[in-house]
């Protein structure tokens, strides 16, 4: 095996260890699985997606470029089982729901390193940069036995380019509606025979439009601006040792609507993540030690009253070991340590600045995984023990099985437990938090079949997720409370060609129930079963692409059924259909020009109550590589 390639792969995946390598075929339409594609997120090491027992989705660099995706939430919305709600247009806060689970029920990784806010419990999907991204992987279902707290709905891993086979550079620029403008550049090259450097920078801004909102009318444009940097430097120390250092930095300013016309209506966000790793590989045994530090901060200002300054600082360390016992049996074991701090946060509440009741917590964990492959059968098992300084001990497990009936048909089934830790806002926000809240816990099962034929590929997956101690967000003045929720659904997806057209289609059927205190008095008759907010029972997606010589065009259609905006189900959001169109022209091997129309039919719709969405918008961009 080429050791330089191995070092590059390890560098990009940080705490994931490769066991084999394969060239990923470039594809244009978002698709779910191909048996040749290698993924790393499911079990923290590289394996063929056709051997994973969980449901894995991915978006490649080619798809991001061809569909001209500009944000992580926009990329995730392409995938089956994912719904997105946003408080307005680009640059505004967004929530991502995977198989009906909440936005804070997903672990978000950047090259294998956890990022996100301990105050909200969720990653800032709007702010995470896509500069330099090679692939986005999504593993659905409970993965807490591998990744720990919050992996109730799944795990998202943003993987950037790593290694360098030759020296290349690229420059990009774009313009669009609402005075959108963008510029970026990137470089990838060798530093001698055994080292490499990757660097990407991007700047983007728009004047935006009036996003509306539930407060008094403020007829002004709500724009944004952002700057992003992504980098990686790595080296091959010897045949067995390699090391790397990588990270990203993000800074943005955005306008939003004040809830009462007086509160802050501007936000400044800063995110960074820096991580280093050293890897030892002697074939049958591999080990990687990684250290990381990251920050997620938001400063709210601009109104006639003061705003809060919320900061999460996280330091983490992990060691992951893999032992290939034989060709059929692989063992994976590791230790994770995390220290969170919100000591720099200042909460403006009741006319004064206050601190959280507690400002730090730590978590230590040990996990063990085992994978077996015998003829047509794949089995996997994982167990993890987390010890937290605030909410104590949690043990999680997962089991999975796959059976290849023949060359064309494969059956899969998996199950596991997961939990989500109460956030600092849940526990300690002045006048709102509840220190008696317990961690949310879930029991997840899924089963399905994958069919691969010359004409089309099909997949059907049924799943069930029972969440106990779900934290319900009540009206102002009420304590947060734990309750129970049950989510079940079916995902159907297929990829196929008709002539020169390539298609990817999916349908999601969701049934979800949540017990809610509708009156706030705590009487038994006040507890009613409601739908989870902002989650539709039915979603359909269709993507089609056509390529002829130097021209390529893509058309996407997404249908979102009706859903409720609030937990008490008093405000219904209407269904909508969204159509986007994009066009690419390869002028020469180094120069490409692209155009896109978002919301081609100028649909008027809401993903959050009273928040306006983007009207028909036009974009033009170009990239030159040399």
From TrEMBL:
Keyword entries, A-Z: Cell outer membrane, Ion transport, Membrane, Porin, Signal, TonB box, Transmembrane, Transmembrane beta strand, Transport
Sequence motif TonB C-terminal box, location on chain: 609-626
Alphabetical list of PROSITE patterns matching this protein: TONB_DEPENDENT_REC_1, TONB_DEPENDENT_REC_3
This protein's GO CC annotations: cell outer membrane; pore complex
InterPro entries found in the cross-reference section: B12_transptr_BtuB, Beta-barrel_TonB, Beta-barrel_TonB_sf, Plug_dom, Plug_dom_sf, TonB-dep_rcpt-like, TonB_box_CS
Motif range (TonB box): 36-43, 37-43
Topology relative to the membrane: Multi-pass membrane protein
TonB-dependent receptor plug domain location: 51-155
Signal peptide (UniProt feature, chain positions): 1-22
Main subcellular location: membrane
Primary role: Involved in the active translocation of vitamin B12 (cyanocobalamin) across the outer membrane to the periplasmic space. It derives its energy for transport by interacting with the trans-periplasmic membrane protein TonB.
Protein name per Swiss-Prot or TrEMBL: Vitamin B12 transporter BtuB
Organism: Vibrio tapetis subsp. tapetis
